[in-house]
Design brief:
Helix content: over 70%
Oligomer: single chain
Number of strands: 0
Radius of gyration: 18 Å
Order of helices and strands: HHHHHHHHHHHHH
Structural class: mainly alpha
Number of domains: 1
Distance between the termini: 19 Å
Largest sheet: none
């Protein structure tokens, strides 16, 4: 289950890149995708739990999580618009570092010297990934910066919803947060949605369907079932594989190119993950 989950997450980088470069504009793709995912999670929650009730005190936290997820989705989808899937995936390797930094800032964890060193190594790796990008420099800078935004906001979202995980199932949290995020994405992407004629080929729609059902829906069920069986520590080790698998899929499926400098940068980010050794609370993994 863990390997299947990680592979589905990793494939989503290439899947989303394919969709937005073959006929569907970024926000016109992201908004309906989240709306459909929200509807699925509302249905699943009602089927499994017979209720969508949450405490009134948690509504503000759920709304804040939706705003952060909005920023995450804008950063993610536009990073893929400007940069290759492989490059975005390598930059996303900073996620464990961002999570540790934000958790430390929130007083949840206390970073030690190893983690500080890991953070320095990680962002040096990002600099190498950015420096090794080919193509137009302005597009590369935008893509890398937006990928960092997406990584940082997912880390913030992960820390923010951690207290809710003690009170609600991931299905109920997803039902609320994805619904609110879908509304926000629709508002932000109104112009693109209005102008979009959704003329993509059957291949585009097949990939879009996979991106919705696999990385957004199936992985939520598999991930939390696996955590229950093997524990969060072992699961988090598998989760860190997704960014390197995503880069590999980008090369194999989209013919993305990775330079030697980017390989060194990716290796540095991977080394930083191993060096950091921060304990992390299990939370929903990226639902890009």
């Amino acid at each position: 289950m863990l390997l299947t989950t990680v592979c589905l997450w990793a494939l989503n980088f290439s899947a989303s890149k394919y969709v937005i470069t073959h006929g569907i504009t970024p926000l016109a793709y992201a908004a309906p995708r989240y709306a459909l995912a929200a509807a699925i999670f509302v249905g699943l929650t009602l089927l499994l739990e017979r209720s969508l009730r949450v405490e009134r005190r948690d509504l503000a936290l759920l709304a804040a999580a939706a705003v952060i997820l909005l920023l995450n989705q804008v950063g993610f989808i536009y990073s893929l618009h400007f940069a290759s899937a492989a490059t975005v995936a390598l930059v996303f390797g900073t996620l464990p570092i961002f999570t540790g930094v934000i958790a430390a800032a929130a007083g949840i964890e206390q970073p030690g010297g190893r983690f500080v060193a890991a953070a320095v190594v990680s962002f040096a790796g990002v600099a190498l990934v950015a420096a090794g990008s080919g193509g137009e420099m302005s597009a590369n800078v935008k893509g890398d910066a937006l990928a960092l935004l997406a990584s940082a906001t997912w880390a913030a979202y992960s820390v923010l919803v951690a207290p809710l995980m003690a009170r609600y199932s991931p299905f109920r949290i997803s039902a609320y947060v994805l619904s609110l995020t879908a509304v926000l994405l629709t508002l932000v992407g109104t112009q693109q949605i209005a102008d979009e004629d959704y003329h993509g080929s059957w291949k585009v729609w097949a990939v879009a369907a996979f991106s919705l059902l696999g990385p957004l829906v199936v992985t939520t069920v598999l991930w939390f079932t696996a955590i229950d069986r093997v524990g969060p520590s072992r699961a988090s080790i598998f989760a860190n594989l997704q960014f390197f698998l995503a880069a590999l899929f980008g090369v194999l499926l989209l013919s993305d190119s990775i330079t030697l400098v980017q390989v060194v940068g990716g290796a540095a980010i991977g080394a930083a993950i191993l060096l950091g050794g921060m304990r992390r609370t299990p939370v929903p993994q990226p639902v890009e």
